[in-house]
Amino acid sequence: MNQIRLPKDVSFIIKELNKAGYEAYAVGGCVRDILLDREPKDWDITTCASPLEVKKLFRRTIDTGLQHGTVTVMLHRVGYEVTTYRIDGEYQDGRHPKEVVFTKSLTEDLKRRDFTINAMAYNEESGIVDQFNGIQDLEKKVIRCVGDARERFGEDALRMLRAVRFAAQLGFMIEEKTEEAIVYLANTLEKVSRERIQVELSKLLLSKHPEWIKKVYQIGLSPYALPNTEEFCKKEVQNKVVRMLNYLPADSILRWAGFLSFYTKASEGERVLKGLKFDNHTVEYVSKLIQYLPQQAEPEEKKIRYALYEMGKEIYSLYLILKKAELLAEKEEAEGEKKREFCLKEKQLEETEYLYHKIIERGDCISLKMLAVSGKDLMAEGIPAGKEIGGLLNQLLCRVLDEPTENEKEKLLIVLAEMRKRYFN
Ligand code: ATP
Ligand code: MG
Description:
With 425 residues, the chain is of the alpha+beta class. It contains 21 helices and eleven strands. The protein has helices spanning 8-19, 29-35, 51-57, 106-111, 134-140, 149-155, 158-170, 176-185, 194-205, 213-218, 222-225, 235-247, 252-259, 266-275, 280-292, 301-311, 313-333, 336-362, 375-380, 387-402, 409-424; strands at 24-27, 44-47, 61-65, 70-75, 78-84, 86-88, 100-102, 121-123, 127-129, 142-143, 173-174. The strands form three sheets. It has a seven-stranded mixed β-sheet with strand order 3-4-5-2-1-8-9. Strand 3 (61-65) and strand 4 form a beta hairpin. Helix 7 (158-170) packs parallel to helix 9 (194-205), helix 12 crosses helix 17 and helix 14 runs antiparallel to helix 15 (280-292). The site of adenosine-5'-triphosphate (ATP) has 12 residues, from helix 7.
């Protein structure tokens, strides 16, 4: 277990630093992931060289956070964060500690890290540096703070939520003392910025074990991480939502919509997301999905076209995925007659999916943009610019949603003439 194959570029960065007389190691998440046979998302490097010394050694670098000691080294279009050994002061609301002190000691740098499994370093010369029994905790599958848990959570309250998110990603348990400290200090999460909380909650929901969201409630973090979501505490709600999450692909909009699907009002979900400082796109999509989810998905082409018109194609396709996950979750729980009912509904949903694909492939008109006549065409027929045009276009669109083969200019102009004749008589 002592030999890790580093990617060529990581090995190159470490060796260049060594050649110039500095210590350097791959560190943190990448070492943990390699030991777990997981693909590391990125490779971080820690070194005793100062940021300016790092910058001098490499051709292309980006000043990612010089005051925190981080320089990104670019090699073959990939960025590697190289950070100077540091001791963190107290964390403030933002992403970084208020003050950092650079150090020449790798041990000090590893000590500032949150969990034992995240506090290991590696280079080819020294092998794995594991001063806090990270390997043992990987084997035991536990998340344990480096040093005294209450002290560590006192420095940065976000670590409490990180503990839950790593447990969810790795399928680990939270070690007893670590969990006790979370329960004791849960309310201090209030100080942490919403953006940092959002990142951890999203990683949790997108993980292999989204059901760990329950833990956020069990250990008292929810009033601070997810205010106004008490509804989720109801057992039957929790069970259904968690089952549903497990049927959803790891997509942020879908998992958040699944999680917040216990709301009947879209505005309540919107409030939660805005509180977490989500981007407008996510807020819009998730709220719409919450709003539309209660709508029935009936296997009837005309109804599907109307739904596509109302929701837009993109939301409709997400709506179907969500609908399916909800149905499978409900079916899983049901028994006897109820189960048979859900099996029938599942068949209907599959039929709806099939018809939806058929409609899209055939290119049926499902929006004003796809209508074979435009406002301009109507004006050319002598209709004055203004509100009337919009009304007529909508009537024509309804006609085409009812009967897609009508979507031809000549046909629609005839329909238009009839409509006007009726109107004037
Ligand atoms: P991921 O796969 O999500 O990137 P990661 O372990 O790389 O997981 P990051 O948030 O990228 O997590 O952090 C990189 C490393 O920095 C961690 O492994 C840990 O050693 C350290 N670290 C990050 N955030 C904190 C924190 N709030 N407190 C202490 N150490 C931290
Ligand atoms: Mg990382």
